[in-house]
Amino acid sequence: MSEDRVRQIEELVRRVELIPDAEARRTALELMAAVLDLHGTGLERMMEIVHDQGDAGKITIRRLAADQVVASLLVLHGLHPDDIETRVQHVLGKVHGNAELLGVFEGSVRIRLTGSGCGLKEAVEAAVRDGVPDAAEIVIEESAASSGFVPLAALGMALPERV
Question: Does the chain have fewer CB atoms within 10 Å around its N or its C terminus?
């Protein structure tokens, strides 16, 4: 889904939540929830029908999951065939530069950059945000090697005591 469309939806939801008339606000929110539920149920049924087509259906599901717009809808409705960790690994496999997934905990994605380059951190973050829109947080650590500085403690060397 384009970022413009997402921003538009977020703005419209914010405006609905600000409707002063409580009954009108509740009705609008219930309408949004009902439409989302209908779409989610329809997408789930479509995925089941495609899946039932055997190997051809599985290939189609992979193609659907690879499409950014369709993938965002599958994620929204909990229907994406890959878990968040698999999707992050897939994104990192496409990023030019060295990035390692440290783990995913409660939606928070931790990545370590093992390479360097102009804008690498920003590029990795943008790629993960686009490919994994349900990531609650993206934390990117730059390894000591990527900055060129390696603290002695990281090498297991003790500093001499001062007298």
Answer: C
Q: Write out the DSSP string of 96-108.
A: SS-EEEEEEETTE
**pTM for this one?**
0.70
Residue type, 85: E
CB 70 within 8 A of CB 64: yes
Q: What is the pLDDT of residues 107-141, one digit of tens each?
A: 899 999 887 777 888 888 988 988 888 899 999 99
H-type helices in 67-150, by residue range?
Answer: 68-76, 84-94, 120-131, 144-147
Q: Taking each helix axis from N to C terminus, what angle separates 68-76 and 22-51, rounded to the nearest 10 degrees?
A: 110
Q: What is the pairing mode between strands 137-142 and 108-113?
A: parallel
From residue 107, give the alpha-carbon distance in Å to each of 64, 87, 137: 23, 12, 7
Cα-Cα end-to-end distance for the chain: 63
101 touches 110 (CB < 8 A): yes
